[in-house]
Design a protein that fits this description.
Blueprint (H helix, E strand, L loop, with lengths): L8 E4 L4 H9 L3 E4 L4 E3 L5 H8 L6 E4 L2 H13 L9 E4 L2 H10 L5 E3 L7 H6 L10 E7 L5 H8 L3 E11 L5 H9 L3 E4 L2 H16 L3 E3 L2 H9 L4 E4 L5 H12 L11
Parallel strand pairs: 1-2, 1-9, 4-5, 4-7, 5-6, 7-8, 9-10, 10-11
Antiparallel strand pairs: 3-8
Length: 259
């Protein structure tokens, strides 16, 4: 088996067994240092109220796998099921995979065809009538209202509710140790991960080039001053492993030019 990442040290900033396995199979030494904790919302009341009324919504729209997991776990805790026939939308393949894992047999009706970001998700509804449709949009406490505004502009009645909180510790001793030992690249999967790596890694972290899972994360990384070597296409675990291989597997890495 080809091992193009032999001798490379890859930093992964969350628990990600599938990615770790793929990179290790390619010869890499993978260092997992989780930088973000996912917690319940500070005020769970609106989220619980929306889920108790979930049968009244025409659409559930998901912008992250974390949102899918938060909804699935809270529905179970409340003793509720996802209503049959509820229409689902996803921002991209990784989120769709989470939906299929949470509710086997369900089908995602709307997903962007190319760029997997919030603005593309709203545009993906271009051929789908939304006027008068009720949409539940579960998000993190750090989410913008890009999707909500886009769907509202198409006539939908959107309830954006906080489904989970993203906790970013200001420092991380394990990260400091690994940066001292040296890593070739860090693999990041969200703008929150960029924020966490920037805060916890400091100047040493910002010298580490990144491979990221999609264009939204790439934008956040470049804005924060990081060098982005590659962007996964498609935005999946397999795509991210392939992007790391493109960046490092052929010898010396070369930075991707900023758009």
């Amino acid at each position: 088996m080809s091992r193009p990442l032999e001798g490379r040290r890859i930093l992964v900033t969350r628990r990600w067994p599938d990615l770790t396995r793929r990179l290790a199979d390619l010869g890499a030494t993978v260092v997992e240092v989780p930088l973000i904790a996912i917690a319940p919302p500070a005020d769970p009341g609106p989220f619980d109220a929306a889920l108790r009324d979930v049968a009244a919504y025409d659409w559930l729209v998901f912008t992250s796998a974390n949102a899918v997991e938060a909804v699935a776990q809270r529905l179970a805790a409340l003793g509720l099921d996802l209503p049959a026939g509820r229409r689902l939308a996803s921002v991209g393949p990784a989120t769709t995979q989470a939906i299929e894992a949470a509710w086997p047999g369900t089908r995602v009706q709307v997903q962007p065809e190319a760029e997997f970001r919030a603005s593309s998700l709203a545009m993906a509804f271009e051929r789908t009538p939304l006027r008068g449709q009720r949409v539940l949009l579960p998000v993190s406490d750090r989410a913008f209202d890009t999707v909500a505004r886009g769907l509202t502009a198409r006539g939908a009645e959107v309830d954006q509710v906080v489904a989970y909180s993203t906790v970013v510790p200001p420092s991380n001793d394990a990260l400091a140790r690994e940066l001292t030992r040296g890593v070739d690249v860090a693999a990041l999967a969200s703008p929150s991960a960029v924020d966490a790596f920037s805060a916890a890694g400091g100047e040493a972290g910002r010298r580490v080039p990144l491979v990221v899972i999609g264009p939204t994360t790439a934008d956040a990384a470049r804005t924060a001053g990081f060098t982005v070597l590659a962007v996964a296409a498609p935005s999946t675990t397999k795509g991210l492993a392939q992007a790391v291989t493109r960046a490092l597997g052929g010898g010396r890495a070369r930075a991707v030019a900023h758009p």
